């Protein structure tokens, strides 16, 4: 088997997984990608910025066997706090909360501030969505704010949209592939993460799919996604 693509990174890279909507596959993408990065030899840590977040819970399920350390960071000062992890890691994956319902609500307001702080410091952003009209809309909004931030940050963060939970021969998946296909004005991953119950099983054991079911379609999807992200980094897009 060919050696997996694992280019040397010149500096620690902060990869955030963001979409203001919940249930789009942010946590699933973060955990599984992080496990694959570890398999390729990168020192990796997950920062979970969601209160009682899914990554922290995943680590609890894994106990001492967790493949990737997870740190909870529920503070809008995240930029400062994350610095402590930059020296000893190649990749910092940041999982974020799905929010913006009620800005007057204290928790929502805080989560929103954290999300903005993450957008302002990330090197690279993955914007996942599932094939559903509400996700299409939320993704448009998210991508537009990222594009605005690029205007202030000299083009950073580089981002790509990721279709998750796709299904062959499903109308909504076809619709999503059309909307977020070649004609979409922003970058989109070629890889899509297909819908599979295997992800949930792996999660229940505190594992990533690339270890739980190495030869599954889902593990292939995650390895393809890792290839694309690492190619972007190697080619200096972030
Ligand atoms: N590719 C997939 N196949 C099957 N289930 C998935 C997939 N991606 C996510 N899910 C499931 O969908 C739900 C929401 O995903 P999650 O990653 O927690 O979203 P978010 O973090 O954006 O809220 C979870 O139950 C998760 O297990
Ligand atoms: Mg989540």
Q: What attributes does this structure have?
A:
238 residues, alpha/beta, Rossmann fold, seven-stranded parallel β-sheet, 7 strands, binds adenosine-5'-diphosphate, binds magnesium ion, CobQ/CobB/MinD/ParA_Nub-bd_dom, CobQ/CobB/MinD/ParA nucleotide binding domain-containing protein
Radius of gyration: 17 Å
Low-confidence stretches: none
**What's the rounded overall pLDDT mean?**
95
The arrangement of helices and strands along the chain is EHEHEHEHEHEHEHHH
- How far apart the termini lie comes to 29 Å
Q: In the CATH classification, which architecture applies?
A: 3-Layer(aba) Sandwich
In total, the number of domains comes to: 1
InterPro entries: CobQ/CobB/MinD/ParA_Nub-bd_dom, DNA_Partitioning_ATPase, P-loop_NTPase
Organism: Marinobacter maroccanus
Pfam families: CbiA
Protein name: CobQ/CobB/MinD/ParA nucleotide binding domain-containing protein
Structure commentary:
This protein has a single domain, classed as P-loop containing nucleotide triphosphate hydrolases (Rossmann fold). The protein is 45% helix and 15% strand. It is built from nine helices and seven strands; from the N terminus they run E-H-E-H-E-H-E-H-E-H-E-H-E-H-H-H. A seven-stranded parallel beta sheet has the order 3-2-4-1-5-6-7, sandwiched between helices. Strand 5, helix 5 and strand 6 form a beta-alpha-beta unit. The model has no long low-confidence stretch (mean pLDDT 95). The structure holds adenosine-5'-diphosphate and magnesium ion. Adenosine-5'-diphosphate binds next to helix 1, strand 6 and helix 7. It comes from Marinobacter maroccanus.
């Amino acid at each position: 088997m060919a050696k997996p693509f694992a280019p040397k990174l010149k500096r620690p890279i902060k990869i955030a997984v963001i979409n203001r909507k919940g249930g789009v596959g942010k946590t699933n993408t973060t955990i599984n990608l992080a496990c694959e990065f570890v398999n390729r030899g990168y020192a990796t840590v997950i920062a979970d910025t969601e209160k009682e977040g899914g990554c922290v819970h995943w680590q609890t399920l894994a106990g001492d066997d967790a493949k990737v350390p997870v740190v909870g960071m529920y503070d809008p000062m995240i930029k400062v706090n994350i610095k402590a992890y930059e020296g000893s890691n190649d990749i910092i994956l940041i999982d974020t909360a799905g929010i913006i319902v009620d800005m007057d609500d204290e928790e929502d307001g805080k989560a929103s501030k954290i999300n903005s702080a993450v957008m302002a410091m990330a090197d690279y952003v993955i914007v996942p969505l599932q094939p559903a009209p509400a996700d299409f809309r939320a993704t448009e909004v998210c991508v537009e704010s990222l594009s605005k931030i690029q205007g202030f940050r000299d083009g950073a963060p580089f981002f790509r949209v990721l279709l998750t939970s796709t299904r062959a021969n499903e109308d909504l998946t076809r619709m999503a592939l059309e909307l977020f296909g070649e004609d979409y004005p922003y970058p989109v991953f070629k890889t899509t993460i297909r819908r599979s119950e295997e992800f949930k099983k792996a999660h229940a054991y505190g594992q990533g799919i690339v270890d739980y079911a190495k030869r599954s379609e889902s593990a292939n999807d995650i390895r393809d996604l890792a290839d694309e992200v690492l190619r972007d980094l190697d080619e200096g897009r972030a």
